[in-house]
UniProtKB/TrEMBL annotation:
Entry superkingdom: Eukaryota
InterPro entries tied to this protein: AB_hydrolase_fold, Dienelactn_hydro
Protein's recorded name: Dienelactone hydrolase domain-containing protein
Pfam families found in the cross-reference section: DLH (PF01738)
Domain Dienelactone hydrolase: 31-243
MF-aspect GO terms: hydrolase activity
Xref: SUPFAM superfamilies: alpha/beta-Hydrolases
Amino acid sequence: MASNPPQACCFKGYPQTGTIQGKMTKMFGIETYVTGSSPIEDRVLVICTDVFGLQLKHNKLVADALAAGGYKVVVPDILFGDALERLDETVDFVAWREKHNVTKTRAIVDKFMEGLKKEYNPKFIGVVGYCFGAKYAIQQIHATKGLAEVAAIAHPSFVSIEEIEAIGSKKPLLISAAEIDTVYTAELRHQTEAKLKEIKAIYQQDLFGGVEHGFSIRGDESIPQNVYAKEKVLFDQLYWFDYFFKKSKKCCKD
C-alpha cells in the first residue's frame, strides 16, 4: 500500500471562504462543476474530489483558483450525489467507504474521462486528486491505459503501490504531503518515493511541515501556516501543469 484507506481525518475539516465562480451542469450524464474561460478542447484539468465532493464549496474554490491559471477545470461528482456536508467527523466512515467502493467509483471516473476524450479530445488533460480522489487521479496516468497526461495529488488515501508502479516513466506526478498524516505516513511516503525512483518516474514530492492531512483543501484558515501551505500547493500545481503543457505544445510543433 502506498497510502492507507481513508480514516477519520479524511472526514473532518474547516469551512472555506470565497465566492464560487463556476456553475453546475451535466457532462456525460454526471453532475459536474465547470469553471474557467479556457476552451475545453485546448487544456483541461479534471479534479477527483475528497469525500465532501460538490456539496460544500471548498473543492469548487480550488477549481476556480486553478481555472484562474488559464485552464478549463471540471469537477465531476464521483460520489454519485452522496457527498458529505458535515465537517465534524460524525459520519460512520467505515460504512461510507464500503458504499463508495473502488469498483463503483472508478466506473464513474472512467466514464467521465472517456466521455471527455471522445467528445472534446483536449490537447492536454491534467488530473488532480485530493485525499479520496487521489487514487482515481493516479489511475488516469497509467502508462498505457490512462487518459490524462499529467497528475497532481495531495495527501492521498487508498493508493496501492501497484498503481504507483503502473504509471511508468512517462507521465509526471506531483505529490503534496502533510507532515501530520496517519493515512499517508512517513513510512508510506518513503516507500512511494522508492518505487517512483525504481521505475524512473517523472515526479516531485513536497512535504509541508506542521500541517495535517487535508490541509490543501479543507484546512483551518485561521492558522497562517495552513494558508501558506494551501496556497503553495496551488502554486506548485499550476507551475507543474504549465510546464508540461508548454512542453507538450513544443513536442507537437517538433
